[in-house]
Amino acid sequence: MKRIRLGIYILIFLLFMIATGAAFLAPAVRTARLLQQSQRLRIGEATFADVDKFTDEFGGQKFPGCSEQHCSFINKVDNAWLSALHLAPRTAITVTHDIENNRLVAREVFYASGDGNAPFIARTVEDQSSSKLTNSAFEPRFNWSSNLKWRVSVHLKPTATLEERQAAYSFATNCMVRIGGCLDAQRLLPGVKWPSEGESGRVAEPSR
């Protein structure tokens, strides 16, 4: 009888550990799936219905006044419970899709980690017009001070190469569950190579 009781306690403990582990990893798993599925929505091809279905699947929402002619959709994942336990700074990723004339015209991924008013940020914007770009289909821009890499912002055209796209969307999902967080923009988006100090105005190439 004692052995049976001990076996039950061990089983309960193992189930508890499995459930705790699953809850711990859930934000990273959800973020990876969110990013993967978002990239299947092609700029200039996906419709209002496509994005609406995607947003509902991931529990997102539409901005007020949405229609097939004009709409913005938003999905967000964060590390709320890890942050609440003070084991990591507040970390969240937001994916926004914009619709114009029943076509997806822009996507923005905004990844931020840090408490207070100055979090570390990694951001990728992909759109049809890419008015912020020069002649390149892939253009990262950087901001740092005192050896702290505060921000990387990547502007992307749908015509970017596969390598450029992989770099632009190489968001480190493990930062969602990392004890202590990822207080460095390069760690949030590791696929983009940062230029050397003093070269912040130069356009960097995606890392190999």
Main attributes?
alpha+beta; 208 residues; 7 strands; 5 helices; single chain; seven-stranded mixed β-sheet; disordered C terminus
Architecture overview:
There is one protein chain. By secondary structure, this protein is of the alpha+beta class. The chain has one domain. It is 31% helix and 27% strand. It has five helices and seven strands. It has a seven-stranded mixed sheet with strand order 1-2-3-4-5-7-6. Strand 1 and strand 2 form a beta hairpin. The longest helix has 38 residues. It is globular and about 55 Å long. 29% of the residues are buried.
Q: Approximately how much helix is present in the residues?
A: 25-40%
- How can the largest sheet be summarized? 7 strands, mixed
SS element count, helices: 5
Distance between the ends:
61 Å
User: What average pLDDT do the residues reach?
Assistant: 82
Number of structurally distinct domains: 1
Category from helices, strands and their pairing: alpha+beta
Rg (C-alpha, Å):
20 Å
Low-confidence stretches: 9-24, 200-208
Shape: globular
Order of helices and strands: HHEEHEEEEEHH
Number of strands: 7
Which strand order spans the largest sheet, edge to edge or round the barrel?
1-2-3-4-5-7-6
Annotate the secondary structure layout.
Elements: H1 2-39, H2 48-57, E1 61-62, E2 70-78, H3 80-84, E3 91-100, E4 103-113, E5 120-127, E6 138-145, E7 148-156, H4 162-168, H5 185-188
Parallel strand pairs: 5-7
Antiparallel strand pairs: 1-2, 2-3, 3-4, 4-5, 6-7
